[in-house]
Design goal:
Layout (H helix, E strand, L loop, with lengths): L1 H22 L3 H53 L2 H21 L5 H24 L2 E4 L11 E8 L8 E6 L1 E4 L2 E4 L1 E7 L2 H7 L1
Parallel strand pairs: 2-6
Antiparallel strand pairs: 1-4, 3-6, 4-5
Helix pairs in contact: 3-4
Length: 199
């Protein structure tokens, strides 16, 4: 009887195990679910990678925008008054011309007092504009440079190298290292005979 009881217990166990297994899905069904989960996971990984790439692009664009904005702010700060200064340069030209004409005046006392007054006004005017970054640049004696000089004529000059600035009709001006008006100049050239012998 004891052995029989034992067999029944094993049969019951077998039956119970089979009943338990009936409730579980088959291995193929489980594998299908795993494959679906893997596909979903791969899609989400790709989506995350694309989102990260987008994030990097947007971050780079934002950094570039910030840098560009800073440069524009700096330009506005440095060169916002450029138009005004260009207009005032014409006044400086006229004051300098006035100084040049005063020297031809016959009355020495009047000539000296007017020249001193105009010179004082000109110096004060230039000092104020210098505070805002304006630099007056003389070109006489320099090698001609088309990026900062405007040649209006050439003259023969034996004493200078060809291509040297020998006269200046208007000075050049820089506003914080930016050329706002080139110097209007006359450039030296060799006399005709010397040019022919060098050819």
């Amino acid at each position: 009887m004891g052995d029989n009881e034992k067999e029944l217990t094993q049969e019951e166990l077998q039956t119970g195990l089979e009943k338990e297994l009936e409730g579980l899905p088959e291995a193929e069904v489980v594998q299908e679910d795993i494959n679906q989960i893997k596909c979903l996971l791969d899609e989400k990984i790709k989506e995350c990678e694309e989102n990260y790439k987008r994030f990097l692009l947007v971050s780079a664009d934002l950094d570039n925008y910030k840098k560009r904005s800073e440069r524009e702010k700096e330009d506005i700060s440095n060169f916002g008054n450029e138009r005004l200064i260009k207009e005032l340069i014409v006044v400086i030209d006229n004051l300098e011309r006035a100084l040049g004409h005063i020297n031809t005046d016959t009355d020495a006392v009047l000539r000296n007092s007017v020249r001193d007054g105009v010179k004082l006004t000109l110096d004060q005017f230039l000092a104020i504009l210098k505070k805002f970054g304006l630099e007056q640049v003389s070109a006489i004696g320099e090698r001609f440079d088309p990026s900062k000089h405007e040649a209006i004529n050439q003259e023969e000059d034996k004493d200078c190298e060809p291509g040297t600035v020998i006269k200046e009709y208007q000075k050049g001006y820089y506003l914080k290292d930016r050329l706002i008006r080139p110097a209007m100049v006359v450039v030296s050239k060799l006399p005709e005979g010397e040019v022919k012998t060098q050819d």
